[in-house]
Amino acid sequence: MMTKKLKIGFGCDHGGINLKNKLIEIFKDEYEYVDYGTYTADSVDYPVYAKKVADAVVAGEVDRGIICCGSGIGVSIAANKVKGIRAVVCSDTTSARYSRLHNDANVLCMGERIIGALTAEDICRIWLDTEFEGGRHQRRVDMLNNM
After folding, report:
1. Which of 69, 90, 109, 124 is catalytic?
2. What ranges make up the beta strands (E) of the chain?
3. Residue 102 falls in the annotated catalytic set
4. d(CA 37, CA 9)
5. Which residues of the chain fall short of a pLDDT of 70?
6. What pLDDT does residue 1 have?
7. Residue 3: its pLDDT value, please?
8. What pLDDT score was predicted for residue 145?
9. Cβ distance 16 to 136 under 8 Å?
10. From CA 79, how far away is CA 51, in angstroms rounded?
């Protein structure tokens, strides 16, 4: 049985461009992807790029989003302003796993100044490979979606 290949939306600000580009390089042959920018290290406003990725997830243009900035915090706050987004900041694999298992997180945010590329790759692999458990967690996700 052939499973659908996930399509990932990547985004970043100037503080996360190196991490975003590294992750695209790592995952480009495993997943379809769209790069929503930014594309240079010139200073930009992170809410612009977080919104681009979040809007694409909500619209179904991509299945999930990965956004990088200096800390992961700013892009997470911005993405969570978009109705239907459940964005999480992860700096470890356990948080990444449970964000999918229990919260059906659809946007992963990471900080280039916080974690290295190898840790980010591990976090992404677990986050992308983990399915939502549903069950008792579905009621809670529904509550989040209705807020």
Report:
1. 69
2. 7-12, 32-35, 64-69, 87-89, 107-111
3. yes
4. 10
5. 1-4
6. 42
7. 57
8. 87
9. no
10. 6
